[in-house]
Amino acid sequence: MSEQTSPETAGAKLIDGKAFARNLREQTRLEVTAFHEKHAVTPGLAVVLVGNDPASEVYVRNKALETHHVGMRSFMHMLPETTSEASLLKLIDRLNDDPEIHGILVQLPLPKHIDPHRITNAISPNKDVDGLGEVNAGRLSVGLPGIIPCTPLGCLMLLKSELGDLRGLNATVIGASNLVGKPMALLLLNEGCTVSVGHIDTKEPAALARSADILIVATGKNGLVKHDWVKPGATVIDVGITRVPTANGKTKLVGDVAFAEVAPIAGRITPVPGGVGPMTIACLLRNTLKAARMSVGDKGCKESGQKNWLPY
Ligand SMILES: Nc1nc(=O)c2c([nH]1)NC[C@@H]1CN(c3ccc(C(=O)N[C@@H](CCC(=O)O)C(=O)O)cc3)C=[N+]21
């Protein structure tokens, strides 16, 4: 990756998640071809969306397109907002039993009348490409191989490619969700970082953030992280993604980090858009390939080696 600086980002290097994700997808495409030649199996991903949140519909469409680009099959299920929990569970059962489907993703958040925990855990652990079910979450927490949630996995790939060995570094994760913050903290712990987790009740989040060599922010509060939250030279990974209106009546995506004031202080920083977002989708495709490999007991792949966490 080339050093990119601009007047607004003074010393900070932009971490180009978009370019990294493009390379990862290309690598995945080649591996999907080889996998198909060896096993005559095409990896298949089912994506389920309940309700019609316009932003979710865009992500879901992008996922379908990128799935095709890497040579996988995509199965879309767009269900009405009024779908009952029972009928969603029935669909998941069908997808669990369908041999053409190797990965199942149910887009979150779900409508209020559906218990997300029950849904996430209904997905077979072998097809849980979001890595959010109790089996995969538990395996991550005890240090066993499993399927790792896409966003934290993408963040870790960016960090390792930028910084190499992370052992001994101080990492602060702001946000403690099951989707990002908690698995991110566990991954960094497994990499040998000294990890702190800040959350809604943390008394001095700025001080906690300022102690970090690696700062990961996943709160959904746009512009939360100001210049005085960041240690000079730190690597900042912005997971937040919020659509805000602009002066000319359009909208744009912004992160949880106040980019213009933080970029001159940080050593490296991910932009929004073009940072973590594209990595999430690229990692979803990796996880789907991994699930397909597990389904045929492909011992020739790194994924079946019991020590290897990362799908590359
Ligand atoms: N079960 C589940 N798993 C998820 O992984 C999941 C989810 N539910 N619900 C919604 C969030 C959101 N999410 C994004 C993925 C990619 C981009 C992405 O590609 N963003 C582009 C910009 C896209 C655009 O311009 O609209 C970028 O940041 O550059 C964004 C957001 C996955 N999520």
TrEMBL record:
| Presence of the UniProt keyword NADP in the record | yes
Outline the extent of the Tetrahydrofolate dehydrogenase/cyclohydrolase NAD(P)-binding domain: 149-294
Its Enzyme Commission number?
1.5.1.5, 3.5.4.9
| Keyword field | Amino-acid biosynthesis, Histidine biosynthesis, Hydrolase, Methionine biosynthesis, Multifunctional enzyme, NADP, One-carbon metabolism, Oxidoreductase, Purine biosynthesis
Output the Gene3D superfamilies linked to this UniProt entry.
Answer: Leucine Dehydrogenase, chain A, domain 1 (3.40.50.10860), NAD(P)-binding Rossmann-like Domain (3.40.50.720)
Q: Name one GO molecular function term.
A: methylenetetrahydrofolate dehydrogenase (NADP+) activity
- Which reaction is the catalytic activity of this chain? (6R)-5,10-methenyltetrahydrofolate + H2O = (6R)-10-formyltetrahydrofolate + H(+); (6R)-5,10-methylene-5,6,7,8-tetrahydrofolate + NADP(+) = (6R)-5,10-methenyltetrahydrofolate + NADPH
What positions does the entry give for NADP(+) binding?
A: G175, A176, S177, I200, I241
Q: Which PROSITE patterns match?
A: THF_DHG_CYH_1, THF_DHG_CYH_2
- Which Pfam families does this entry report, sorted A to Z? THF_DHG_CYH (PF00763), THF_DHG_CYH_C (PF02882)
Q: Which NCBIfam families match?
A: PRK14188.1
What task does this protein carry out? Answer: Catalyzes the oxidation of 5,10-methylenetetrahydrofolate to 5,10-methenyltetrahydrofolate and then the hydrolysis of 5,10-methenyltetrahydrofolate to 10-formyltetrahydrofolate.
Assembly information from the UniProt record: Homodimer.
Q: Could you say which protein family the record assigns here?
A: Belongs to the tetrahydrofolate dehydrogenase/cyclohydrolase family.
Q: Mind telling me what this protein is named?
A: Bifunctional protein FolD
- Give the source species: Acetobacter conturbans
